[in-house]
Design goal:
There is one protein chain. This protein has helices spanning 4-39, 47-73, 86-105, 109-119, 121-129, 132-152, 155-172, 175-188, 191-209, 211-220, 228-251, 256-274, 276-291, 294-315, 320-338, 340-375, 378-417. It is mainly alpha-helical.
């Protein structure tokens, strides 16, 4: 099925070559016939001489051009005349010449850069990518590749690499300054507030759904000597105050308790960065943790969990990362078409990438031409090339016949009227 279009094209080329070859040969035959007929016409009128001269010159021109065209591909009439069947004899030189020509004139850096600039990579990519279905296709393809790579990973090898490559580096790096810097950065980004908001939301939800659990816990620890109604009143009050406190902490980031938490975390970050005793405690904890037999199991468990999370995220088309990827890809495509500076940067990068690739591989790319021509048999090479250009070359024969006839006619006129 894949070869059908190619076979049809080859058949069309062969048909066109045969047709033009027939036309050129018929013109040659007509010129020969006219010349013979006029030469054998005894007592012919004066105009016949003009026709004979035109036919004679047309025959010469047609034969000369037939010889020239035929000599490119084969020996005329099968005779081993020198400097004929040129393509068969010099196909390798022809292939290397084409290789050098393509490398010099087609794969030159200015040509490639100009073509890439003409294409307008940023505009084309932006127009395509800003369409939501296309952004979804890209995110789906990337996610499927990621999922496939994760599934093919050797879990034991990953764990071994972490144990032998990552853990030793963790031993060498002091944890305290790093933890202090991370805590400072987290606080600067307000991560403690977001974490507290999440915890307080869950706490409020749990309290609203489980009032009896709170009251039951208070009643369980109430003194045996206190009256039941007092215990219930205290339990109700504690529950109400707990709910009020959670709501207040959630709604007010400047609440005293939350400010105290911020102060504690800031002080902890400072001590982690500067306090020698704190650094010693952290290093001691690190040594104990990494020396524990559970460390290896923890690495395997963390990888298993991380792999499972990544697989879930990459295979679930409705996951937050997948939705965010689609949105950001479409947004990036829109920006490519509206931001001239970004488009110019992308176009420049595309030109640089294409230029580097061509400069590095143009020899290999161009060598395909020379190697392919060299792999052809001489007769096959001649046939292939003749099939591609032979139809046009037949026009040389036709033009030789016509131009030769006109030249012969002109020479006869000059001879008759001038000389």
């Amino acid at each position: 099925m894949d070869r059908a279009p190619d076979d049809q094209a080859q058949a069309a080329l062969r048909s066109g070559l045969r047709r033009m070859r027939t036309v050129a040969t018929c013109l040659l035959a007509a010129a020969v016939a006219i010349y013979i007929a006029t030469s054998l016409w005894h007592g012919a009128p004066g105009w016949v001489g003009y026709v004979r001269s035109a036919a004679e010159a047309g025959t010469v021109g047609a034969l000369a051009d037939w010889f020239a065209v035929t000599a490119l591909f084969r020996h005329p009439l099968g005779l081993p005349i020198p400097h004929t069947a040129i393509i068969r004899k010099r196909k390798d030189d022809l292939g290397r010449g084409l290789e050098s020509f393509v490398a010099t004139h087609f794969l030159a850096e200015p040509v490639v850069r100009g073509k890439v600039a003409q294409i307008g990579a940023a505009a084309r990519v932006g127009d395509w990518l800003r369409q939501p279905p296309n952004a979804d296709r890209v995110s789906t393809e990337v996610a499927s590749r990621l999922a496939s790579a994760l599934e093919k990973m050797n879990d034991a090898l990953v764990v071994e690499l972490v144990e032998k490559s990552v853990l030793p580096r963790l031993v060498d790096v002091p944890w305290a300054p790093v933890l202090g810097a991370l805590l400072d950065r987290a606080m600067a980004d307000g991560l403690q507030h977001r974490a507290a908001d999440v915890l307080l939301d869950h706490a409020q939800e749990w309290l609203v759904k489980n009032p009896d659990a709170v009251r039951g816990l208070v009643l369980e620890h109430a003194p045996a000597w206190s009256p039941r109604w007092v215990d219930e009143a205290v339990a109700n009050k504690i529950y109400t105050e707990a709910v009020r406190l959670v709501v207040a902490l959630r709604d007010d980031r400047h609440h005293r308790l939350r400010r105290n938490l911020d102060g504690f975390l800031a002080d902890l970050a400072r001590k982690l960065r500067t306090d020698a005793s704190m650094r010693e405690k952290v290093e001691e904890f690190k040594a104990q943790a990494l020396a524990s037999p559970a460390a290896a199991d923890a690495v395997a468990a963390m990888w298993s969990t991380a792999k499972g999370i990544l697989l879930d995220l990459s295979t679930d088309e409705y996951s937050v990362p997948r939705r965010a990827a689609r949105t950001r890809l479409a947004s990036f495509g829109e920006k490519l078409t509206t931001d001239p500076e970004l488009a110019a940067s992308v176009n420049q990068a595309a030109g640089d990438l294409a230029a580097r690739a061509v400069n590095r591989y143009k020899g290999d790319i161009a060598a395909i031409i020379g190697d392919t021509v060299a792999s052809w048999e001489p007769v096959e090479a001649s046939r292939r090339i003749e099939l591609q250009v032979g139809r046009d070359l037949q026009f040389i024969r036709i033009n030789g016949t016509v131009v030769g006839a006109l030249a012969g006619l002109l020479i006869h006129l000059v001879t008759e009227f001038v000389l």
